Amino acid sequence: MDALLLLAHQVFAWLVLLLDALSSLPAAVWQQHAPPLWTALLGCFGVAWLLAPRGVPGRALALMWLFPLFIVVPSLPPPGAFRVVVLDVGQGLAVLVQTHAHALLYDTGPRFNASADAGNRIIAPMLRSIGVSRLDGMIVSHQDSDHSGGALSLMQTIPVGWVASSLPPPHPIVREREARGETARRCLAGDRWNWDGVEFTTLHPVEASYANPKLKANDLSCVLRVVNAAGSVLLTGDIEARTEADLVRRDASALRADLLVVPHHGSRTSSTPSFIDAVHPEVAAFTPGYRNRFRHPRPEIVERYVAAGAKIYRTDYEGALTLDFGEGAAREPRREREHDAHYWREVPLRGDLPPLE
């Protein structure tokens, strides 16, 4: 009897080794985009046909009704165009920029607790749903947890080509990249690259910013401008008035953008009149958390953008905002709460905020 138990144990040990080897394969976990509704309905019809009683003709042909589930993939921007998704991650920031063959994530949202953050609860599922299996680049604008909180879980969930940030060397994100034998490079003004006909330019920080011990983490935020023939986007992290003035002084014309993701969620420490005049955005996207304790965005800041002629959108009210920058694309963002309405996504009451303490 003991010999049989030992043999069973050994067989099971060999099986575990095999399963462990299989789990390390790239295709060990099946992941794919969320299929369109019509392909899901066809798939249900195909499954029902396959399960039909014996004698129903053509059951093998039912497999054809399943093919659209896998071969109809989400549309990508054509060469030269790009898509921007300003995610609703609560009080924080995460922006996806997609070109025809590349994907960049700017900031990774907040950390909620020891096991949950915007990376594993919001961003990774969203990337899977739209068929993004790899990030070619990730920018973590600065070290505040509402911008960097999801980075570690994302790096463990999805391949990331390179990471750029203004983080100090001891930061866990930098250490994680080094542990993988990869570098986390610094954001530096003047860095440029072109993906599929779309220009990316880093405007801040400059080298001297890193050498200034008095500069706050907010003012070290990586500032990125994305531009093509159809328009431009400015991503600003949490820069405050000091850095805004520096950017205007260096080259105000380089700040011009059709879409501005508003600095610091609409805090009164940012969005100076001179900066808004230089950017002159057609669309201003605010990224506060609903009923956040900071009362972002501040009413006087919203009024500045309204006075400048910008259309105002807020992720806490509208949900994720998606804009396409291509030939003939409208400058009206797709608002997720309206586009994919459900009773659990009812629009919050505007102005329903707690009193200041």
Give an account of the 3D structure.
The radius of gyration is 24 Å and the shape is globular. With 357 residues, the chain is of the alpha/beta class. Helix content is 31%, strand content 19%. Helix 4 packs across helix 6. The chain starts with a helix and ends in an 18-residue tail after the last helix. 38% of the residues are buried. Helix 9 (241-251) links the parallel strand 10 (231-235) and strand 11 (259-261). The longest helix is centred in the N-terminal third of the chain and has 22 residues, at 2-23. Strands 6-5-4-3-2-1-14-15 form an eight-stranded mixed β-sheet. It has a seven-stranded mixed β-sheet with strand order 7-8-9-10-11-12-13. The model is unreliable at 352-357 (pLDDT under 50). It has two domains: 34-72; 82-345, 4-Layer Sandwich (Metallo-beta-lactamase, Chain A), CATH 3.60.15. The protein has 13 helices and 15 strands.
Topology:
Elements: H1 2-23, H2 37-50, H3 67-71, E1 82-86, E2 95-98, E3 103-106, H4 118-129, E4 135-140, H5 145-148, H6 151-157, E5 160-165, H7 172-179, E6 184-186, E7 192-195, E8 198-204, H8 207-210, E9 223-228, E10 231-235, H9 241-251, E11 259-261, H10 273-279, E12 283-286, H11 299-307, E13 311-314, H12 315-318, E14 321-325, E15 334-335, H13 336-339
Parallel strand pairs: 3-4, 4-5, 5-6, 10-11, 11-12, 12-13
Antiparallel strand pairs: 1-2, 1-14, 2-3, 7-8, 8-9, 9-10, 14-15
**Uncertain runs with pLDDT below 50, 5 residues or more?**
352-357
Name the beta content range: 15-25%
- The number of strands is 15
CATH superfamily of the largest domain: Ribonuclease Z/Hydroxyacylglutathione hydrolase-like
CATH architecture name of the largest domain: 4-Layer Sandwich
Instruction: Give the distance, in angstroms, between the N- and C-terminal Cα atoms.
Output: 73 Å
> From N to C, what is the helix and strand string?
HHHEEEHEHHEHEEEHEEHEHEHEHEEH
Radius of gyration, rounded? Answer: 24 Å
How many distinct domains? 2
Mean pLDDT: 91
